[in-house]
Design a protein that fits this description.
The complex is a heterodimer of chains A (174) and B (216). With 174 residues, chain A is of the alpha+beta class. Chain A has 4 helices and 7 strands; from the N terminus they run ααβββββββαα. In chain A, strands 1-2-7-3-4-5-6 form a 7-stranded antiparallel beta sheet. The mean pLDDT of chain A is 89. Classes of the chains: A alpha+beta (174), B alpha+beta (216). Chain A: One of its GO terms (molecular function) is serine-type endopeptidase activity.
Amino acid sequence: MFSALGNLQPRQLAAQILNFALVLSTAFMLWKGLSVFTNSSSPIVVVLSGSMEPAFQRGDLLFLWNRGKETQVGEIVVYNVRGKDIPIVHRVIRRFGGGSAPLQLLTKGDNNAADDTELYARGQSYLDRSKDVIGSVVGYVPFVGYVTILLSEYPWLKTAMLGFMALTVVLQRE
Amino acid sequence: MADTKISPHSLAELKNTTDDALGNYLRGLKFEQDNTKLDVRLAIGYASVIIAAATFAADYKLGWEATKTWTAVAVVAYALLNGAFTYWMWAVEKGCVFAGVREGKKISVASKTKKHDPTYYLTISSANSESRQITAPFTTWFTADGYFVAKPFQQWLASSVEAIGNADSKNALRDQRDEIASPSPEVELTPQGNGTVDASGTDGKSKGSKRSKRKG
């Protein structure tokens, strides 16, 4: 299998490696393009917990839009707790400010008993719409995101997938 | 060249192996390969990969908010470069597998295959003439179990293409070249002694001894 690679001229080897590099970079740039379009740092997120049941289940894929400045009560937003990298998907139950004043939000999971004040960082009792919120949910696909959960819980899966992809693209010359 | 076995059922492998062999053969005949087309493709491709890598690095180090504008610019640049890349491959390269010069004469070879058709289509354009298309089934130079045999492939090329035949006289069979130049009729008319014409195609004299004995 690898002998086929050994017979290649150096330019052709470079061309094969380019093919693999283009697959990776195109996927990445498509993601970044979507980020720029939605103005969100993470335009597609996976639901990690059951705190929004029955609306969203663990493993659902959510599509976000971050260009709506006036988030209303009842909208579902995704935010990062200050200092942590875990996205939380909850519903807005109160808003303060808005218009010319900076917009502040209080959120709560549908399936939770209490609002999110416990979840926010120490000293933080509300969310800043412009700083903390990644976007509002505008659509979703059920269950598809479970792959991401598996990839994060079993990190060797990521390496295995990438290695397999690299092998097939470099050795295939179609 | 190593005796590598390929799958004779995969059209892509047949074509790629033949393309590689073509390049090796021509380079062996001292055709100087002109790599400009491939180099431009590699340049465009790697430029876009570098832009993607730079965007990734910036995003990793500085985060989303700080790099938003640069990312937007990079995405547009990447899309344009990728479009140029695809256009280059489709319009300019157009299946070119070898371009080179020998003794001042340029030659450019492009190959293609058609789906579910085990035939090799070559389009050759040399400096003096316009492009010609020659075809041959892959079975001419591949065994049934997938081994490439160089001799029939080289003979086919040397006999069908003047520029290659001039470079490799050993493989350019005179009969075949003449065939291509002016095909002979299937049957020869040979006059017989008794006024009739024998169209059987056999030379009466050479086999005549046996015949006349039996008849006589």
